[in-house]
Write a structure and sequence with these properties.
The chain starts with a strand and ends in an 8-residue tail after the last helix. With 262 residues, the chain is an alpha/beta fold. It has a seven-stranded mixed beta sheet with strand order 1-3-2-4-5-8-9, with helices on both faces. Strands 6-7 form a two-stranded antiparallel ribbon. Helices cover 37% and strands 17% of the residues. The longest helix is centred in the N-terminal third of the chain and has 14 residues. The chain has two domains: 176 residues, 3-Layer(aba) Sandwich (Rossmann fold); 64 residues, no CATH class.
């Protein structure tokens, strides 16, 4: 699958993978900072953003998309950065192809399986409830989403997926049906029976419960050279809550400053 991507800078390649419901645009600010020292590729994963849609949606397919992207662009020793779902894609790839990447950064996700989260189902149900044959106003869509998703930050995050087809019709960039039908796959743990000794950094949002104390031992079994750091007061959306602190963590791990201000 040929994925849409944003491209900045030159040097050692860095590939950034967003989380569920995300798009490459969410990571542009940090991507441009990294592009002062690296060649940065920010991908739209399948069924997200401007990348193709498919009924198949699981970590095997997402990791294969990443492999194809690296092959197509002839990237050598890329650094992988993945947030949430993107972190699990990056971890799966790192375990299956440890000699193809240089370093791994995982933002606020563990290797374990997660129970289904009601927040995800509320988002999907709200998006599926909108009939674009009857609704053509962004304001009307926004009202439906904000009534169902109480966090204004998450509502605005979801509404970034709204776009206009021609002059009179709106649509979701997300393949909402495919994500809904396969949502249980997103909550799966890392099932590959391998380990990888590549340098890895796991960044936890201090106000998030996605990485718990008991997860560290499980992570180290898969990635024995993993380091751990926490950004206090950041939620699961660490890159939105604390971009400066996150860039500082990246700088320390990569030994190259990404604190440039555009």
């Amino acid at each position: 699958m040929k994925l849409f991507y944003r491209h900045y800078g030159e040097g050692q390649p860095v590939i950034i993978l967003h989380g569920i419901f995300g798009i490459s645009d969410n990571w542009v600010t940090i991507g441009r900072r990294l592009a002062e020292k690296f060649e940065v590729f920010i991908l739209d994963q399948r069924n997200h953003g401007q990348s193709p849609h498919s009924d198949t949606f699981n970590y095997f397919a997402l990791a294969e998309d990443l492999f194809e992207f690296i092959e197509d662009h002839q990237l050598t020793n890329p650094i992988l950065i993945g947030h949430s779902m993107g972190g699990k894609v990056a971890m799966n790839f790192a375990l299956e192809h440890p000699h193809r990447i240089d370093r791994l950064i995982v933002v606020d996700i563990s290797v374990r399986a997660y129970p289904a989260r009601q927040q995800h189902m509320d988002i999907l149900n709200a998006m599926l409830s909108i009939n674009f044959d009857e609704i053509s106003s962004r304001e009307d869509v926004e009202k439906i989403i904000t009534d169902s998703v109480k966090s204004s930050k998450i509502s605005q995050f979801i509404l970034k997926n709204l776009y206009r087809i021609g002059k009179s019709r709106l649509a979701w960039r997300l393949n909402v049906d495919a994500i809904y039908n396969n949502i249980e796959n997103v909550f799966e743990g890392i099932e590959l029976p391998y380990t990888s000794d590549i340098p890895a950094l796991f960044v936890k949002g201090g106000a998030s419960d996605y990485i718990l104390d008991e997860d560290y031992k499980m992570i180290l079994k898969k990635f024995p050279n993993a380091q751990f750091t926490t950004i206090n007061n950041a939620s699961h959306w660490v890159h939105a809550d604390a971009p400066d602190e996150l860039c500082s963590k990246f700088s320390g791990f990569l030994a190259k400053d990404c604190d440039y201000r555009p």
